[in-house]
Amino acid sequence: MKxxxxxxxxxxxxxxxxxxxxxxxxxxxxxSMNCNVGFVEFIAYFEEQGKSHTLHELSEFHQENGEWxxxxxxxx
Length: 76
Prior knowledge:
76 residues; Nuclear Transport Factor 2, Chain: A; four-stranded antiparallel sheet
């Protein structure tokens, strides 16, 4: 899983996105864990080009060798 996350991560794109976005607030709605799989539902509030936006997502994380890795997300 760690390899999959690294394979799908594009540092250049992530950096470009971060320069255009101002993160305002993160609201965690729920979180749960079952063995080595965890889920977090959240709403992220941000501004981009002077406009307010939200991102409502259910994220999935997997634990591998004591470390947690984001593996998937579903936009709600």
